[in-house]
Design goal:
Structural class: alpha/beta
Oligomer: single chain
Strand order of the largest sheet: 3-2-1-4-6-5
Number of helices: 13
Distance between the termini: 41 Å
Shape: globular
Number of strands: 6
């Protein structure tokens, strides 16, 4: 099993191209809907997207999708924290797959554009505002408006509103667009049936290029669907990548599934221990861990000594020791759940006269991750507690990189002298 820090950032070629396309299109849209997963509203945020929005001064609404997988108390806590960390943000909770919370988002988006861009209402054509000399940009923008206007119902008086949906992969952006189209089509029955829906899928990265869909007819609103975008290096380090991997926002190799699951189980044992009650062995282990009983077993004490004695005898940080102990507990929890599942399956299968089949750690990890992603583990939020190891700041990463470079040059100088 690979360690927790083996999870790496996922930044395929189409994502890099999508980032460039998104930057260009932002100048031509009236509003951006940023979509995050409500179970990881901070880990699924993208500093890269925020920089693009700030550079273009694009108005934004924040949508936390899949909010039906959280409890009311968790939603209130997330709202308070987001309003503290991102003051002024307009926040909406939605369950796009169930078409819940979609109507207020569409209404708020239209109202915000109406308030900030009144030029879009009451006339069908005309030059749109922009800096002097932006001829090429205005021409491209006019082409978009013209394309949207051609699909408008006969007699419509308002210039089409152009909105963009953006966010991390697999947060439900395309699902939200389809739900908004269904909501907006109430005033235009039969129209949606003639239009292809936004492409959706269970894996991240289904949408690979920008495409547009009309989501409202009164007033006319068009939405640009964009591929999920993440920075080349996950903002919150390896632990942020783990949380994204648990929720299937980044594709992970098969060899990392057990590590992802052990991280999830450690999180559950630490913050949502009631979820483990369905697996007696794992639940007992989690209770002992919470009560500090494991530290008296001697085994974890040996792990601490091994961690402290490696790296050429250098003393590791307390964070490193804490991480190694947490990884070990996570592996033990995964083994305990696998044993509970194996015992249950063997009992049921033998009772039903079905051939015995053992569950290994990999299949157990796959099943648990599937249950988490589908919401079958209960109301679990991965961002409602701080990271095990605080992420390294950008300045600290630069300092460490320079320090390693100096160390390499020093060693090279010694080698040349010899």
């Amino acid at each position: 099993m690979s360690g927790w820090r083996a999870a790496t950032s996922w930044f395929p070629g189409h994502m890099a191209q999508a980032s460039r396309d998104m930057s260009q299109r932002l100048a031509k849209v009236d509003l951006v809907l940023e979509v995050r997963d409500a179970r990881a509203p901070f880990s699924s945020a993208s500093s890269q997207l925020h920089r693009l929005l700030q550079a273009r001064r694009a108005p934004r609404l924040l949508v936390l999708n899949k909010a039906d997988l959280l409890g009311e108390a968790q939603r209130r806590a997330m709202r308070r924290r987001l309003e503290e960390e991102e003051p002024g943000v307009r926040l909406f909770f939605a369950a796009a797959a169930e078409r819940r919370g979609v109507a207020p988002i569409l209404a708020a988006a239209v109202e915000q554009v109406r308030r900030e861009s009144p030029r879009l209402f009451g006339r069908r054509q005309g030059a749109r505002g922009g800096p002097a000399g932006a001829t090429a940009s205005m021409f491209a923008q006019e082409l978009m408006v013209q394309a949207a206007a051609e699909a408008m119902p006969q007699g419509a008086e308002a210039l089409p509103l152009m909105m963009m949906v953006a966010g991390a992969p697999n947060t439900g952006k395309s699902t939200l667009i389809n739900a908004m189209r269904q909501e907006g089509a109430r005033d235009a029955p039969g129209v949606v049936r003639r239009m292809a829906p936004a492409k959706m899928g269970k894996l991240p990265g289904v949408t690979r290029q920008l495409s547009s869909f009309q989501v409202s007819w009164e007033p006319p609103v068009w939405m640009l669907d964009t591929p999920g975008v993440l920075p080349p290096n996950i903002d919150n380090g390896w632990e942020g990548a783990m949380r994204l991997g648990v929720l299937d926002m980044i594709r992970t190799d098969a060899e990392h599934r057990e590590a992802l699951c052990s991280y999830l189980l450690h999180h559950l044992a630490t913050h949502h221990i009631e979820v483990l009650s369905r697996w007696p062995r794992a639940h007992r282990l989690a209770l002992r861990s919470a009560q500090g009983v494991l530290m008296m077993d001697g085994e974890l004490r040996d792990i601490e000594q091994q961690v402290r004695s490696r790296l050429l005898g250098l003393e590791p940080s307390e964070a490193e020791v804490k991480l190694q102990v947490a990884e070990t507990i996570g592996v033990w929890l995964l083994e305990s759940v696998a044993q509970d599942m194996q015992q249950f399956c063997l009992g049921v299968r033998n009772g039903a006269g079905v051939r015995e089949k053992k569950l290994n750690l990999h299949s157990t990890a796959m099943l648990l991750l599937k249950m988490m992603r589908e919401g079958r583990l209960g109301e679990v939020c991965l961002d409602d507690h701080p990271f095990l190891v605080p992420p390294i700041s950008k300045e600290e990463r630069i300092r460490r990189k320079l320090q390693k470079k100096v160390e390499r040059r020093r060693k090279l100088g010694k080698h040349l002298l010899i």
